[in-house]
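#struct-help
A.M.: can someone run this one for me? Single chain, 305 residues.
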Amino acid sequence: MHKESLSMKLSKQFPLNALRVFEAAARLGSFTRAGEELGMTQTAVSYQIKLLEENIGEPLFLRRPRQIVLTEVGERLAPKVSEAFSILQDAMASVSDDPEIMLLIHSTPTFASQWLARHLGSFQLKHPNIAVRLSTSDTIIDFSRVSSDIAIRSGRGAWPGLRAHLLMKVNFTPMLSPELAASIGGVHTPSDLLKLRIIDAGDPWWVQWFEAAGVPDPGLQGRPRSRLGAQSFEASAAIAGQGVAVLTPEFYVDDLAAGRLLQPFDILCNDGMNYWLAYPESRRHTPRIRAFKNWILGEFGMPLE
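D.P.: on it. C-alpha coordinates below:
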Protein backbone atom coordinates (compact mmCIF):
# COMPACT_ATOMS: atom_id res chain seq x y z
CA MET A 1 0.00 0.00 0.00
CA HIS A 2 2.81 2.37 0.87
CA LYS A 3 4.61 1.61 -2.39
CA GLU A 4 1.44 2.17 -4.41
CA SER A 5 0.72 5.54 -2.79
CA LEU A 6 4.34 6.61 -3.24
CA SER A 7 4.14 5.69 -6.94
CA MET A 8 0.95 7.70 -7.35
CA LYS A 9 2.57 10.66 -5.59
CA LEU A 10 5.60 10.55 -7.88
CA SER A 11 3.34 10.28 -10.92
CA LYS A 12 1.53 13.42 -9.81
CA GLN A 13 4.77 15.26 -9.13
CA PHE A 14 6.24 14.34 -12.50
CA PRO A 15 3.47 14.49 -15.12
CA LEU A 16 5.75 13.35 -17.96
CA ASN A 17 3.12 13.57 -20.70
CA ALA A 18 2.27 17.13 -19.78
CA LEU A 19 5.95 18.07 -19.50
CA ARG A 20 6.62 16.60 -22.95
CA VAL A 21 3.78 18.68 -24.41
CA PHE A 22 5.05 21.78 -22.60
CA GLU A 23 8.59 21.28 -23.96
CA ALA A 24 7.33 21.07 -27.53
CA ALA A 25 4.99 24.07 -27.16
CA ALA A 26 7.72 26.20 -25.56
CA ARG A 27 10.27 25.24 -28.22
CA LEU A 28 7.91 25.75 -31.17
CA GLY A 29 6.01 28.74 -29.76
CA SER A 30 2.68 27.24 -30.79
CA PHE A 31 0.13 24.78 -29.41
CA THR A 32 -0.85 23.87 -32.98
CA ARG A 33 2.71 23.09 -34.08
CA ALA A 34 3.35 21.17 -30.86
CA GLY A 35 0.27 19.07 -31.60
CA GLU A 36 1.46 18.39 -35.13
CA GLU A 37 4.86 17.25 -33.86
CA LEU A 38 3.38 15.01 -31.16
CA GLY A 39 0.38 13.73 -33.14
CA MET A 40 -2.15 15.42 -30.86
CA THR A 41 -5.02 17.83 -31.38
CA GLN A 42 -4.64 21.43 -30.28
CA THR A 43 -7.37 20.78 -27.70
CA ALA A 44 -5.37 17.89 -26.23
CA VAL A 45 -2.26 20.06 -26.09
CA SER A 46 -4.14 22.83 -24.30
CA TYR A 47 -5.55 20.30 -21.83
CA GLN A 48 -2.09 18.91 -20.97
CA ILE A 49 -0.70 22.41 -20.49
CA LYS A 50 -3.62 23.26 -18.21
CA LEU A 51 -2.97 20.11 -16.14
CA LEU A 52 0.69 21.09 -15.75
CA GLU A 53 -0.21 24.65 -14.77
CA GLU A 54 -2.61 23.32 -12.13
CA ASN A 55 0.09 20.95 -10.89
CA ILE A 56 2.60 23.80 -10.55
CA GLY A 57 0.11 26.41 -9.43
CA GLU A 58 1.35 29.03 -11.89
CA PRO A 59 0.52 29.94 -15.51
CA LEU A 60 3.21 28.90 -17.98
CA PHE A 61 1.93 30.73 -21.08
CA LEU A 62 0.20 34.01 -21.81
CA ARG A 63 -2.56 33.23 -24.30
CA ARG A 64 -2.87 35.93 -26.93
CA PRO A 65 -4.74 35.95 -30.27
CA ARG A 66 -2.79 33.63 -32.60
CA GLN A 67 0.18 33.68 -30.25
CA ILE A 68 1.40 32.14 -27.02
CA VAL A 69 4.20 33.64 -24.93
CA LEU A 70 6.02 32.02 -22.02
CA THR A 71 5.48 33.61 -18.63
CA GLU A 72 8.43 34.23 -16.32
CA VAL A 73 7.79 30.85 -14.68
CA GLY A 74 7.54 29.22 -18.11
CA GLU A 75 10.85 30.82 -19.16
CA ARG A 76 12.55 29.33 -16.09
CA LEU A 77 11.02 25.89 -16.57
CA ALA A 78 11.45 25.43 -20.34
CA PRO A 79 15.25 25.02 -20.59
CA LYS A 80 15.37 22.66 -17.61
CA VAL A 81 12.63 20.46 -19.08
CA SER A 82 14.37 20.49 -22.46
CA GLU A 83 17.64 19.37 -20.86
CA ALA A 84 15.88 16.65 -18.87
CA PHE A 85 14.28 15.12 -21.96
CA SER A 86 17.57 15.32 -23.82
CA ILE A 87 19.30 13.38 -21.02
CA LEU A 88 16.48 10.81 -21.01
CA GLN A 89 16.79 10.42 -24.78
CA ASP A 90 20.53 9.81 -24.49
CA ALA A 91 19.97 7.34 -21.65
CA MET A 92 17.45 5.31 -23.65
CA ALA A 93 19.67 5.31 -26.73
CA SER A 94 22.65 4.09 -24.73
CA VAL A 95 20.85 0.84 -23.75
CA SER A 96 18.75 0.24 -26.88
CA ASP A 97 19.52 -2.12 -29.75
CA ASP A 98 20.14 0.90 -31.96
CA PRO A 99 22.23 3.13 -29.66
CA GLU A 100 22.55 6.04 -32.08
CA ILE A 101 22.38 9.51 -30.57
CA MET A 102 22.02 12.52 -32.86
CA LEU A 103 24.17 15.60 -32.22
CA LEU A 104 22.99 18.71 -34.05
CA ILE A 105 25.79 21.19 -34.80
CA HIS A 106 25.38 24.66 -36.31
CA SER A 107 28.53 26.32 -37.64
CA THR A 108 29.77 29.19 -39.73
CA PRO A 109 30.54 27.99 -43.29
CA THR A 110 34.26 28.79 -43.10
CA PHE A 111 34.87 26.99 -39.81
CA ALA A 112 32.84 24.01 -41.02
CA SER A 113 34.74 23.65 -44.31
CA GLN A 114 38.23 24.66 -43.20
CA TRP A 115 38.43 22.92 -39.83
CA LEU A 116 35.42 20.94 -38.63
CA ALA A 117 34.94 18.76 -41.72
CA ARG A 118 38.62 17.82 -41.63
CA HIS A 119 38.67 16.81 -37.96
CA LEU A 120 35.16 15.53 -37.21
CA GLY A 121 36.15 11.96 -38.06
CA SER A 122 38.28 11.69 -34.92
CA PHE A 123 35.28 12.67 -32.77
CA GLN A 124 33.12 10.00 -34.40
CA LEU A 125 35.84 7.37 -33.89
CA LYS A 126 35.86 8.19 -30.18
CA HIS A 127 32.04 8.29 -29.98
CA PRO A 128 30.68 5.85 -32.58
CA ASN A 129 27.20 5.93 -31.02
CA ILE A 130 26.85 9.69 -31.70
CA ALA A 131 25.71 10.59 -35.20
CA VAL A 132 26.44 14.16 -36.29
CA ARG A 133 24.23 16.42 -38.35
CA LEU A 134 25.92 19.65 -39.43
CA SER A 135 24.23 22.78 -40.74
CA THR A 136 25.94 26.02 -41.73
CA SER A 137 25.12 29.69 -42.10
CA ASP A 138 26.52 33.04 -40.99
CA THR A 139 23.28 33.75 -39.10
CA ILE A 140 23.49 33.60 -35.29
CA ILE A 141 20.80 31.09 -34.40
CA ASP A 142 18.29 31.32 -31.56
CA PHE A 143 18.50 27.99 -29.70
CA SER A 144 14.88 28.35 -28.58
CA ARG A 145 13.67 28.39 -32.18
CA VAL A 146 16.22 26.36 -34.16
CA SER A 147 16.94 22.68 -33.55
CA SER A 148 20.59 22.64 -32.56
CA ASP A 149 22.59 21.25 -29.66
CA ILE A 150 25.68 23.40 -30.11
CA ALA A 151 26.93 26.22 -32.31
CA ILE A 152 30.34 27.31 -33.53
CA ARG A 153 30.14 31.09 -33.59
CA SER A 154 32.30 34.03 -34.52
CA GLY A 155 32.03 36.78 -31.94
CA ARG A 156 33.17 37.99 -28.55
CA GLY A 157 31.79 35.10 -26.52
CA ALA A 158 29.13 37.00 -24.55
CA TRP A 159 25.66 35.64 -25.35
CA PRO A 160 22.93 35.73 -22.66
CA GLY A 161 21.84 32.28 -21.53
CA LEU A 162 24.69 30.51 -23.33
CA ARG A 163 27.92 29.00 -22.10
CA ALA A 164 30.80 29.81 -24.47
CA HIS A 165 34.31 28.37 -24.76
CA LEU A 166 37.05 30.04 -26.81
CA LEU A 167 38.31 27.75 -29.57
CA MET A 168 40.72 29.87 -31.59
CA LYS A 169 41.79 33.44 -32.19
CA VAL A 170 40.76 34.66 -35.63
CA ASN A 171 43.87 36.43 -36.90
CA PHE A 172 43.93 37.77 -40.44
CA THR A 173 46.47 38.85 -43.06
CA PRO A 174 46.58 39.19 -46.87
CA MET A 175 47.20 36.04 -48.93
CA LEU A 176 47.45 35.46 -52.67
CA SER A 177 48.70 32.97 -55.21
CA PRO A 178 52.48 32.96 -55.88
CA GLU A 179 51.73 33.38 -59.61
CA LEU A 180 49.75 36.57 -58.99
CA ALA A 181 52.57 37.97 -56.83
CA ALA A 182 55.08 37.15 -59.58
CA SER A 183 52.96 39.00 -62.13
CA ILE A 184 54.05 42.32 -60.58
CA GLY A 185 57.60 41.25 -59.85
CA GLY A 186 56.82 40.09 -56.31
CA VAL A 187 55.18 41.67 -53.27
CA HIS A 188 57.89 43.41 -51.27
CA THR A 189 56.00 46.11 -49.36
CA PRO A 190 52.37 46.28 -48.14
CA SER A 191 51.58 48.98 -50.71
CA ASP A 192 52.53 46.54 -53.50
CA LEU A 193 49.25 44.73 -52.78
CA LEU A 194 47.37 47.81 -54.03
CA LYS A 195 48.68 47.10 -57.53
CA LEU A 196 46.46 44.01 -57.58
CA ARG A 197 42.74 43.32 -57.34
CA ILE A 198 41.58 43.33 -53.72
CA ILE A 199 38.93 40.67 -53.07
CA ASP A 200 36.11 42.33 -51.10
CA ALA A 201 37.68 45.76 -50.65
CA GLY A 202 34.76 46.68 -48.36
CA ASP A 203 35.80 44.21 -45.69
CA PRO A 204 36.85 46.23 -42.58
CA TRP A 205 39.69 43.76 -42.04
CA TRP A 206 41.52 45.43 -44.93
CA VAL A 207 41.48 48.88 -43.34
CA GLN A 208 42.70 47.50 -40.02
CA TRP A 209 45.48 45.46 -41.64
CA PHE A 210 46.78 48.27 -43.88
CA GLU A 211 46.85 50.64 -40.91
CA ALA A 212 48.85 48.10 -38.89
CA ALA A 213 51.17 47.70 -41.88
CA GLY A 214 51.87 51.44 -42.06
CA VAL A 215 49.48 52.30 -44.91
CA PRO A 216 46.82 54.41 -43.14
CA ASP A 217 44.98 55.50 -46.31
CA PRO A 218 45.04 52.65 -48.85
CA GLY A 219 42.29 54.22 -50.98
CA LEU A 220 39.97 51.21 -51.03
CA GLN A 221 36.77 53.26 -51.24
CA GLY A 222 36.65 53.34 -55.03
CA ARG A 223 37.32 49.63 -55.51
CA PRO A 224 34.61 47.02 -56.22
CA ARG A 225 33.04 45.72 -53.01
CA SER A 226 31.75 42.39 -54.27
CA ARG A 227 31.18 39.89 -51.45
CA LEU A 228 31.60 36.14 -51.91
CA GLY A 229 29.72 35.28 -48.72
CA ALA A 230 32.36 33.30 -46.85
CA GLN A 231 36.10 33.40 -46.26
CA SER A 232 36.48 29.95 -47.80
CA PHE A 233 35.12 31.26 -51.12
CA GLU A 234 37.50 34.21 -51.02
CA ALA A 235 40.38 31.79 -50.41
CA SER A 236 39.35 29.75 -53.45
CA ALA A 237 39.31 32.92 -55.56
CA ALA A 238 42.78 33.83 -54.26
CA ILE A 239 44.15 30.37 -55.06
CA ALA A 240 42.74 30.76 -58.57
CA GLY A 241 44.75 33.99 -58.94
CA GLN A 242 41.72 36.29 -59.02
CA GLY A 243 43.08 38.72 -56.43
CA VAL A 244 44.38 39.20 -52.91
CA ALA A 245 42.19 37.99 -50.04
CA VAL A 246 42.43 38.80 -46.35
CA LEU A 247 42.35 35.40 -44.65
CA THR A 248 42.99 33.50 -41.42
CA PRO A 249 46.30 31.66 -41.91
CA GLU A 250 45.43 28.87 -39.44
CA PHE A 251 42.80 27.66 -41.90
CA TYR A 252 45.15 27.46 -44.88
CA VAL A 253 48.28 25.74 -43.53
CA ASP A 254 48.08 23.03 -46.23
CA ASP A 255 47.63 25.57 -49.04
CA LEU A 256 50.59 27.58 -47.79
CA ALA A 257 52.78 24.48 -47.47
CA ALA A 258 51.83 23.28 -50.96
CA GLY A 259 52.52 26.67 -52.52
CA ARG A 260 48.93 27.31 -53.56
CA LEU A 261 48.86 30.41 -51.37
CA LEU A 262 51.49 32.92 -50.32
CA GLN A 263 51.47 34.96 -47.11
CA PRO A 264 53.79 37.85 -48.01
CA PHE A 265 53.95 39.46 -44.54
CA ASP A 266 54.06 38.31 -40.92
CA ILE A 267 51.76 41.15 -39.83
CA LEU A 268 48.68 39.58 -38.17
CA CYS A 269 45.63 41.48 -36.93
CA ASN A 270 42.66 40.55 -34.77
CA ASP A 271 39.45 42.51 -34.29
CA GLY A 272 38.26 40.60 -31.23
CA MET A 273 35.82 38.43 -33.18
CA ASN A 274 37.07 34.91 -32.45
CA TYR A 275 35.64 31.39 -32.78
CA TRP A 276 33.67 30.02 -29.85
CA LEU A 277 31.79 26.86 -28.96
CA ALA A 278 28.38 27.84 -27.57
CA TYR A 279 25.40 25.97 -26.15
CA PRO A 280 22.54 26.72 -23.73
CA GLU A 281 23.72 27.03 -20.13
CA SER A 282 20.83 24.83 -19.04
CA ARG A 283 22.05 21.94 -21.21
CA ARG A 284 25.68 21.91 -20.11
CA HIS A 285 25.30 18.45 -18.52
CA THR A 286 23.75 16.80 -21.59
CA PRO A 287 26.08 13.85 -22.33
CA ARG A 288 26.42 14.36 -26.10
CA ILE A 289 27.11 18.08 -25.67
CA ARG A 290 29.65 17.41 -22.95
CA ALA A 291 31.36 14.75 -25.12
CA PHE A 292 31.70 17.12 -28.07
CA LYS A 293 32.86 20.00 -25.86
CA ASN A 294 35.60 17.89 -24.28
CA TRP A 295 36.73 16.61 -27.68
CA ILE A 296 36.92 19.95 -29.49
CA LEU A 297 38.57 21.80 -26.59
CA GLY A 298 41.16 19.03 -26.51
CA GLU A 299 41.76 19.39 -30.26
CA PHE A 300 42.52 23.09 -29.77
CA GLY A 301 44.59 22.50 -26.65
CA MET A 302 42.17 24.46 -24.49
CA PRO A 303 41.73 23.59 -20.79
CA LEU A 304 38.72 21.47 -19.85
CA GLU A 305 36.40 22.59 -17.10
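A.M.: thanks! The radius of gyration is 25 Å.
D.P.: also worth noting: The beta strands are 61-64, 67-70, 101-107, 130-136, 150-155, 162-168, 173-175, 245-247, 274-280.
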